[in-house]
Give the backbone structure.
Amino acid sequence: MNQSRSRSRTAELVEASLKRRYAKESRFRMMGLGAIGLGLLFVLILFVSIISNGYGAFVQTHIRMAVTFDSAILDPQGTGDPEVLKQADYRQLVRQPLREMFPDVKSRRDKRKLYQFISGGAERELRDMVLADPSIIGTTKELWLMADDDVDMVVKGHIAREDVIANGGEKLIQWLERFEAEDRVERQFNTTFFTSGDSREPEQSGIGGAVAGSFFTLIVTLLLAFPIGVAAAVYLEEFAPRNRFTDLIEVNINNLAAVPSIVFGLLGLAMFINLFGLPRSAPLVGGLVLTLMTLPTVIIAARAALKSVPPSIREAALGVGASKMQTIAHHVLPLAMPGMLTGAIIGMAQALGETAPLLMIGMVAFIVDVPGGPLDPSTVLPVQIYLWADSPERAFVERTSAAIMVLLAFLISMNALAVILRRKFERRW
């Protein structure tokens, strides 16, 4: 009877212990789910904030104007010389229809505000039209001209019309309402945002120059980091003897992967610019600096890919008479290449989002023209975002968020490509 009581007591203790254990597991599971949910919530808030602030940059307000290409302004002598047409006063072509629409605007101050209604980029657009087709001189055309950034913000609702009126902009609102009443206001897809370089005027600024700079920088990085990283990984994994020297190299490679990126910028400034005299703010120097930064990532990924190849592959190739170099080149490398490519893509995605090392080598310069090569002055997309984020105009807030959206799209695409390559070519042994 005592034994039965003891067994019953033991069973009760075990059952209570199991209940406590299950309760702890349930609480731990809920904490994990809560942490995941909280992280996803913050990511969602971040994306909603960026998209809500930046989607408007993909459209731009345009004003329909009847522009007369007056030959007395463009080509008084009638020579048709392209140099004369290039130096003509296209500002008058933009101001003339505004004066005709609002003849009651007399004061110099009001005229200045009226002329600022249309973006200064409209003058360049008209010049390009005339140079491309001089036959339009002497004709009148209805054209959609880019509006100023303040007008664009009002039309999009980012600046309340009541606030503009309260700050002395009552006439600006009256002019805008007349344009709207005559169906002369339209929002069109903003091609300038994707094709132009940086500008002091928000409506004329774009990410074209920064995207081109990022492209040339990543090309230089890829052409240097991938072959050097793969060669270093092959040597360390297949040829290097196991001694203190190679152990020291491996430890330093792993440590370099955790070094702050700005340290590589300081190294690039000291070596490539001060020592070798390479041009500042050039994609070539940026690519060299990012190569130094991404090499540890590429080497570590390549070594992991080589380790994943079974030793039996090497033994079989050596057994049929292949040399060690033939074994690696014809058997090991083809099987490890998918993992190496995945590591290289992840390294390129890391390099695409870097800002600090590029700031140290001068890629923070104000670049208007789209670079045509790796030696031309340029900036990159993260640095462009950094520059715009420091600008006070409300329109630059919109463009900053839109540029972040483009950068995130590139990063997500590159990481998705790495996942697809890994799943498609990865072999499980």
Remarks:
- The chain has a mean pLDDT of 87.
- The chain is about 70% helix and 5% strand.
- Residues 208-425 form a domain with the MetI-like fold fold (CATH 1.10.3720.10).
- The first strand starts at residue 59 and ends at 68.
